[in-house]
Every structure is written in structure tokens, then in C-alpha cells.
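Annotated sample (chain length 368).
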Amino acid sequence: MSGFPPSLQALPAQGGSDAVLRAEFPPAHYWRRWAADAAMPVARFAAEVTAPARPVPADAPSPANGGDEAPYRVLVVEDDVSQALFAEQVLGGAGIQVEVVAVPAELLPTLEQFHPDLVLMDLHMPGMSGIEMTALIRAQPQFAPVPIVFLTGDPDPEKQFEVLECGADDFLSKPIRPRHLIAAVQSRIKRARALARQRFVAEARNPVTGLHTRSHVLQRIAAALANGSPGGALFLEIQAAAALSERYGYAGYEQLMHEVGLRASGLSAPRPCARLNDNAFLVAAPEGDAQALETLARRLRDGIGFESFDVDDLPQRLRVAVGYSTLDAAHGFADAGAVLDAVEQATRAARTAPIGLAAHVAEARGDR
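Output written by the structure step:
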């Protein structure tokens, strides 16, 4: 590639229950507060894993990185047409996607659109030097981790030190052999992606509880919506939370909810599970249909509601309500917050359902 000129429907009753609505549940639209820390776009790494890869021409060779990983993407910042074409042809021949920027003013817009794995930077550019453009890139938090490699014919060794001091990762001298260029680029990108994966995994879990973070679960839901993936989300509520907190005190109650979270995470694995508030948990299920979601909802209800927990060496049984929804297009969900709103409302219905479960049902078009 060249850069040149809802209604709710409770499930059928299967036994009696005196479940009632409880004032302890957050008010409608409280999900906006839970979603506040996930308002940023889906992380670049998550998008890279879940989003369809940018199309590769049919005659392009397979990516050198192999497997199902997205092709490497390199942004070449070079005003010399022949040098830019050289880099584009060499890297493209190795299965690497290339975008060229010849004018400094196009740098940031292209970064936003292309999301490169690496920037191959020329030192001498019209209007703004490569060093100045490197500083500009490093000033953008979302692009700060992107490797920047200078490729220049400037023989001055002082320039090499200056380049590295400004935030560049490497300095390659022209002329360069194609194999050397390919190896240098692939090595840097491979290392950067490995570090990104490590950061993604570390940031996805709460270091205290071991559960996934709210933002991670909401981002997984947002990514599934954006890609039109099947699956859904489940909202699990522990009922009578105020009474439990009063009975066991803050420390005892928190230990109980910690155990509930671990059990919910184990029952829903490998799907991510996060604690939303004092007595609610959210599970993202990026695969399966309505039947699979109902099966998972029953597993959560039975594994938590039909088993006892030890609190202060005393057994404690819990009452559970589970609401869930598919991500089917018929629901018209605009974003992850709308999905969370739907499963929250489904959980309200589940409180009064004899079996403690309720599914969100899409509104008929005439009811909207």
C-alpha cells in the first residue's frame, strides 16, 4: 500500500420464590458510572487481536511473522521518492504493510489512521526534522511505545547520539542491504508486540482481587459489538447485600464478596469476569448463542446460590439474580454501556423471577 500523491422477559417458572425488588440496587443508568473508567477507545492491542486485519493484496506474500497474527505495519517517513519506494518494496516483499508520509503535516493524521507497529524515520525532512517529529510522536501517549528507527545517510556520529537522545530506538545507516532492513524492522516489532501483550495482560486484571478490571470487560464487549461477533454479557447480583454487610461487618463482607468473585470467575472461565460494585459482577461472553448464555447463567446461579460460603467459620448461603443478553443486532446496542444497561435491567427482572434468571429481549420496532 502506498501513501503517495428492551423489553425484558423472565424465563419460565420452575419453582416458587418470594424474591422482591430491593432498594439496595443502583438506580437506572448507574452503569454510566461503572463505564466511566472504560470510556477510552478499545486498546490498540485489543483491537489488533479482535478486529479484522487490514486487507493484504492477493499477490502479497504471507507475513513473515507467520501464524494468525496481524501483519506487521510500518510507517515510512521519507520525502525522497526513490528512498521511500525502496523501503516500501523491500518491506512489502516481506509481507509487511507499509504507509508512506512525505510531508510532516501528514504525520499525526496517518498515525491515527494507520496505527503502525514501527516508524521508519528519515533524519532530514522539509519543514520539520526527523528529530522534531520523533519528539512530536513521543508526546502522544497512545504512540509513545511505538518503536522509531532512523534510516539516514548522514555520516555525522553526533547526529546518531542526538537521534537516540530524542527518543529513537535505533539508527540504521544508508545504504542498507534489504535483508538487514527487514531483520531490523521485524526484530523491533516482534519485541514491541510481546511487550504490548504483557502490558495488556497486566492491565486487564485487578492486582488485589485477581479478577478482570471493569474497563477490560467493557472493552471486550465493545470489541465484540464493533466486529459483529456473537456472544453476550451476564450481570450477577448477590441479593440482601446490606443485611450481609451489617451481619459480618466491612472486612467480613469484603472477604465474602472476594470469594464470590473468585467462584464466579472460575465458573465463567475463560470468559472475563469483573466486580462492578459491592454486590454485582459482570461477565463478557464473546461467543455462544442465547441458549449458551442461559446455560452459563444457570451455572453461575447454581454454583454460587446453591453452595455455601464460609464466613467467620460459619456457612453462609446466598441468593443470586442473573440477567443476561446476547449481542444480537436486533437489540440495537450502540456501545458497551447500552449492553450493561440492558443486563442491569434484566437482573432487576431476575430478582422477581421464581428461578432468579431473566433474559433481555429486543424491543419490537413498533415499540421504540
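Annotation: The longest strand covers residues 232-238.
Annotation: The chain is about 40% helix and 20% strand.
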